[in-house]
Write a structure and sequence with these properties.
Its EC number is 2.6.1.62. It is an enzyme of class 2 (transferase). Pathway: Cofactor biosynthesis; biotin biosynthesis; 7,8-diaminononanoate from 8-amino-7-oxononanoate (SAM route): step 1/1. It is found in: Cytoplasm. This protein is an alpha/beta fold. The protein has 15 helices and 16 strands. The strands form four sheets. A seven-stranded mixed sheet has the order 4-12-11-10-7-5-6, sandwiched between helices. A four-stranded mixed sheet has the order 1-2-3-15. A hairpin with a 2-residue loop joins strand 1 and strand 2. The structure holds pyridoxal-5'-phosphate. Pyridoxal-5'-phosphate binds next to helix 6. The site of pyridoxal-5'-phosphate (PLP) has 15 residues, from helix 6.
Length: about 475
């Protein structure tokens, strides 16, 4: 390990400098400003593999892959080199009316690895955006506009799932169902319909995850029976509702959802922004259901976590639906940085690493190790559920360790665990009272052992602290 001289005073001074000017995302800033240190700010100097090196000279394990973006570790040399090379060749150019190699080569690559279903027309075209939410906006607008172009005006609604998350822009928020992010903006949002989540955590007594998936699919079927003529697309997160608390469901659901969309002439949009690129054990989560969507949204890990970029993959039929003499029938959506060459170069390097390093196979081994380390938590008196999908493991904390006794939100168990883990050198960022592991793929056995030990200590500390608070 590098020998780094501790510089605690520098870290403290940095916090002050930061808080004087920055407004941080997804944060109640008052908790940072609070002299009691309710939410400590972590000043980071650099990244190295699965680790972040703080300005205090300490190393912190990035157990959440920096909001699920990082795949192969921080400052990955091959990705860094690709960006550097591209920066001295062509840093950016308008993509309307112009072509460049990174955009074309990346599109070719993505289409070649995208989920494919026998007998269904493959995903054939790539539209770029520059972040996940923008990618979701693109997919929603494409689905709606396609019907308009066919002279069908009645299909103006989307179906999404309870507890789903698709981003923060107004269109993406409209199909999201996490009250903390959505409720205040509700008056501004387009109307969407929500179908029950197949979430296995919601299984009733004696019900299996597969049965739960089928029950949720039956409810989706009824919703479609009643409203199909008004619906242009169903949008969902395959396999794991990540922001919704790493809630996982049986792959049978997506298979049924695909069949129902086909039966009702509704597009299926798979949002694999968080679960794509090997995170859940297969290259794409949709593969576990043997399903191919009509529109596939990718972002987060697309560049290995180095630069913002999103891609929406569409079928030839969707693309063809926009070909016309009318410019209004074209998909005019654009962002200044659409198809940015630096981001595309980073993504190409990232896609090459997925293959060169045999990442899916290696992740299989790492997932096994994670399963072994996670198993004992099932007996913890405050853990109601331990669940896993590949490189994601989640622990649902409750008062008595059963599903019926959630902690009071005011107890801030997750926040207390966050602070306790940070003090022990691990960056966890719980979703409410759900703690989860979603480390970069390069995480090694020692780091995983530290993660497991720290998670247990953080849970115990949080519960003890909350009781005496
Ligand atoms: C993070 C996320 C988004 C939004 O992506 P941003 O780049 O944060 O805008 C959309 N969908 C899912 C499933 C996500 O996890």
């Amino acid at each position: 390990m590098d020998h780094i001289i501790a510089r605690d005073d520098t870290a403290a001074a940095w916090r002050e400098r930061d808080l004087a000017v920055l407004w941080h995302p997804c944060t109640q800033m008052r908790e940072h400003l609070d002299p009691a240190g309710t939410l400590p700010l972590l000043p980071v100097e650099r990244g190295e593999g699965a680790w972040l090196i703080g300005r205090d000279g300490r190393r912190y394990l990035d157990a959440i892959s920096s909001w699920w973006t990082n795949l192969f570790g921080h400052a990955e040399p091959r990705i860094a080199a690709a960006i550097a090379r591209q920066a001295t060749t062509l840093e950016h150019v308008i993509l309307a009316g112009v072509s460049h190699a990174p955009a074309v080569e990346l599109a070719e690559k993505l289409l070649s690895i995208a989920p494919r279903e026998a007998g269904r027309e493959p995903l054939a075209k790539v539209f770029y955006a520059d972040n996940g939410s923008a990618g979701v906006e693109v997919a929603l607008k494409m689905a709606f506009h396609w019907f308009r172009n066919r002279g069908i005006d009645g299909r103006t609604k989307f179906i999404a799932l309870d507890n789903g998350y698709h981003g923060e822009t107004l269109g993406a928020l409209a199909v999201g169902d996490i009250p903390l992010y959505r409720r205040v903006y509700a008056p501004l949002l387009a109307e969407a319909m929500f179908a029950p989540s197949p979430d296995a955590y919601l299984c009733e007594e004696g019900e299996t995850p597969a049965q739960r998936a089928h029950r949720a699919a039956d409810a989706l079927s009824e919703l479609l029976e009643r409203h199909a003529g008004e619906v242009c697309a169903l949008i969902l997160e395959p396999r794991v509702q990540c922001a919704g608390g790493m809630r996982m469901h049986d792959p049978a659901y997506l298979k049924r959802a695909r069949e129902l969309c086909d039966a009702h002439g509704v597009f299926l949009i798979c949002d694999e922004i968080a679960v794509g690129f090997g995170r859940t054990g297969t290259l794409f989560a949709s593969e576990q259901s043997g399903v191919q969507p009509d529109l596939l949204c990718l972002s987060k890990g697309l560049t290995g976590g180095a630069l913002p970029l999103a891609a929406v993959l569409a079928t030839q039929s969707i693309y063809d639906g926009f070909l016309d003499v009318s410019r209004e029938k074209a998909f005019l959506h654009s962002h200044s940085y659409t198809g940015n060459p630096l981001a595309c170069a980073a993504a190409l390097a990232s896609m090459a690493i997925l293959e060169q390093d045999d990442v899916i196979v290696r992740n299989g081994d790492t997932s096994q190790r994670m399963a072994t380390l996670a198993a004992p938590f099932a007996d913890h008196p405050h853990v109601a559920d331990v669940r896993q999908a590949g490189m994601i493991v989640a622990f649902e904390l409750t008062r008595r360790g059963d599903k019926r006794t959630p902690f009071d939100a005011g107890a801030r168990i997750g926040l207390r665990a966050y602070r306790a883990a940070l003090e022990r050198g691990v960056l966890l960022r719980p979703l409410g009272d759900v703690l989860y592991w979603m480390p970069p793929y390069c995480v090694d056995d020692d780091a995983l052992q530290l993660l497991a030990d720290t998670t247990r200590a953080a849970i115990d500390h949080a519960i003890e602290e909350a009781a005496c608070a």
